[in-house]
Write a structure and sequence with these properties.
The chain is mainly alpha-helical. It has 16 helices and four strands. The chain has helices spanning 3-32, 47-78, 83-92, 98-131, 139-170, 175-198, 211-224, 260-265, 268-283, 286-309, 312-316, 325-340, 344-365, 368-381, 390-396, 402-415, and strands at 205-207, 231-234, 245-248, 255-259. The protein has a four-stranded mixed β-sheet with strand order 1-2-4-3. Helix 4 (98-131) runs parallel beside helix 12, helix 5 runs antiparallel to helix 6 (175-198) and helix 7 packs parallel to helix 9 (268-283).
Length: 417
Amino acid sequence: MHWFTLLFVLLLMLSTLLRSWLNQRQIAAVARHREKVPDAFAGQVDLDSHRKAADYTVALGGLNRWDILLDALVALAFTLGGGIQAIDHLWQAATLSPVWHGTVVVLSTLLAMSAIGLPLSIYRTFGIEAHFGFNRMTAGLFIADLLKGLLLMLLLGGPLLYVILYLMQRAGSLWWLYAWGVWTAFTLFITWAWPTFIAPLFNKFTPLGDEALKQRTESLLQRCGFASQGVFVMDGSRRSVHGNAYFTGVGRNKRIVFFDTLIERLHGAEIEAVLAHELGHFRLHHVRSRLILSLLFGLGGLALLGLLAAWPPFYQALGIGQPSAHAALLLFMLVLPTFTFFLTPLGAWWSRKHEFEADEFAAEFSDAGKLAEALVKLYRDNATTLTPDTLHSTFYDSHPPALIRIARLQQLAAQRI
């Protein structure tokens, strides 16, 4: 057995065991605290809501057990199990040009992997989400979303994939640098186009209509020195009763988006505080820094792929008999997550740091107490556990745990009295 094969299998086993262990810790911690609302939330979250959040988290954890196992099996099946090579052989009968052959092999492999994960996605939506009263997705809408996503992958991802494979085969040893330029342009285009052209294919976005709330938000935008296309309400209730808000876009296509379910649940001052938090991510350059970091990681990843693609044992060690640009790309996509998984806590820590900073920004330009009240309502209505396992939260969570975050917001509010 080649040493790289052994390394891949070992890291895949370790990551799978670690994911399973952390998942089981989360299930146990949440179940252990099911019968008692934390004292800090005793007056705001009733016991039934707390139990629902615990049961919902445990149910998702049970599904995650299968998801973890499936990820490992897919990685093995398509590499050492010969899955990529089998799909490659099937398309050889079409006698396509090398670049077109590689493009359809990669797209077919990605489609096959998506199909394998589809049953778990269906069960989550129509099983767990429906059982806990969150799902509003119909079978027709689910299929429509699936087909739209597939069409977008073909229309946007297909040409990008073709260009990258062309560069890999024709642009010489520095192909990865040219490919990074293409990837950067594509990423910036998608980030710019998403709010105005792509997201509306899936949801309806309407300008905020409540005049009193509109005046409140416009005043906040002015105080923060923020210019955008405006604040929009998204019909998230078509698919789920979960509420959320987010910032999206770059340049003149910047948008603040509220789910309609969030607007229904929060008061004006609470919505203003949530908006101030989202504005904080922009004013503190979180969106820009994340985009820059992702592009730098893309550069490093493509440079590494350039080295691996020219190293014959890379293919042989992972079940590919004949080296090719598309095989190198697919192997890299399948193997890289196993190696980068252990960096997950760093990304989670950085994200939590940004959340704390955005909360501080909201406290400066709005009311930290109202933000805390809004978050507690969202925790309750979205069935977010208030008692996560500490290690699981540290490893994965992009947002601070509820107890820590609310306590910090209450301190910020007290400092401004």
